[in-house]
Design goal:
It comes from Nothobranchius furzeri. The protein has two helices and 20 strands. It is elongated.
């Protein structure tokens, strides 16, 4: 028996385009004092990243895929990272060999390092009511004349739409490589990618542009609503104000809810005119009779997915006081969208 342990030193959350590093340890847990202890042999081990897509059969009508089948799919000696998984593998990286012909004596362990750039052309991690995208690092190993064993390590990918690819510096292209500085150079390149992403987020989300809305009913004006910007980071507070002094109709109570919508394009809907999936992320309720003004603050949860679009549906995040205004609208060249709304 051999134990396999995978550890991601920087945690399980990565930006698309960021370098993912994982330490993989193979251990023979048998004690050398045991009478049945013996050395263990592994023929090989490899690792790769793959993204698994799953669609709800009740909500999504997927296009026909035909009868294409891998002739080696039923073989236990062929590495298929998505073997036994639900849905379709929509993205995978080339496998990297960790070792060949490894011998482990009782109590011995060996650790190997795996690194791979998280693909920039894939969807973000997402678990919706209609579609799901799940990223996993799959580690496969095999003993001689035995089936392949797989270890899957799930992780989260955030896609920052609109971040340009940096030009490759000419001095790095022509300069000779130094084998003693490879790890340092890799960490510097990774840090530069993170810095670009953080700079882009700060510039995009720091722009204040107040949006005013008049809230009315059949009898007249109730209040004026103001939201100070429409693009927010995960974990940031959505802040807005109400001005009731300009209203003709008294307001007893108001509530503000942060919701997200997951919308499937019409050609992929299981039933014509099916309802849009709505998920609530927070609510603020306050009494406001005889109040001239009031404000609210709703945090954007850290565990939600920023607005995106894919080949199947739509999901977004927005805010609407009697009308809607997009809070997040990062879109790619796909057909599924994710939106956030404030419902007042």
């Amino acid at each position: 028996m051999i134990e396999v342990v995978a550890s991601m030193a920087r945690g399980p959350v990565f930006l698309a385009g960021e370098l993912m590093e994982c330490l993989i340890t193979f251990t023979n847990p048998m004690s050398h004092l045991s009478t049945s202890a013996s050395s263990e042999m592994l023929a090989w081990a490899s690792a790769q990243i793959h993204c698994q897509f799953h669609a709800s059969e009740n909500r999504v009508a997927l296009p026909a895929q035909g009868n294409k089948q891998d002739v080696q799919a039923d073989s236990d000696t062929v590495l298929i990272p998505s073997r036994g998984e639900r849905g379709q593998c929509v993205l995978d990286t080339p496998p990297k060999i960790l070792f060949c012909d490894l011998r482990l004596d009782p109590g011995e362990s060996k650790t190997y390092s795996y690194s791979e750039m998280v693909p920039v052309d894939g969807p973000p991690s997402f678990r919706g009511q209609a579609v799901k995208y799940v990223y996993k690092l799959t580690i496969g190993c095999q003993r001689v004349n035995s089936p392949i064993k797989l270890l899957r390590v799930p992780f989260r990918v955030l896609v920052l739409q609109g971040m340009p690819e940096p030009p490759f510096p000419q001095d790095e292209e022509v300069s000779p490589s130094n084998p003693f500085l490879e790890e340092e150079e890799a960490s510097r390149r990774d840090a530069r990618a993170l810095e670009r992403a953080l700079d882009m987020l700060m510039v995009t989300t720091s722009r204040r542009c107040p949006h005013m809305f008049n809230i009315t009913n059949m009898r007249g004006k109730v209040a004026k609503f103001c939201i100070f910007k429409t693009v927010y980071r995960l974990g940031e507070d959505v802040v807005g104000t109400f001005n009731f002094s300009e209203g003709d109709i008294p307001c007893l109570q108001y509530s503000v809810s942060l919701q997200s919508e997951e919308e499937i394009q019409e050609q992929y809907q299981r039933r014509p005119g099916q309802a849009i999936s709505v998920t609530g992320h927070g609510r603020h309720l306050e009494s406001c009779l005889h109040t001239a003004s009031s404000h609210f603050s709703l945090p954007v949860p850290l565990n939600v997915t920023p607005g995106f679009s894919t080949d199947i549906g739509q999901r977004t995040a927005q805010s609407s006081p009697a009308c809607s205004s997009s809070l997040s609208s990062f879109s790619s060249s796909y057909h599924c969208y994710y939106y956030y709304y404030l419902v007042i």
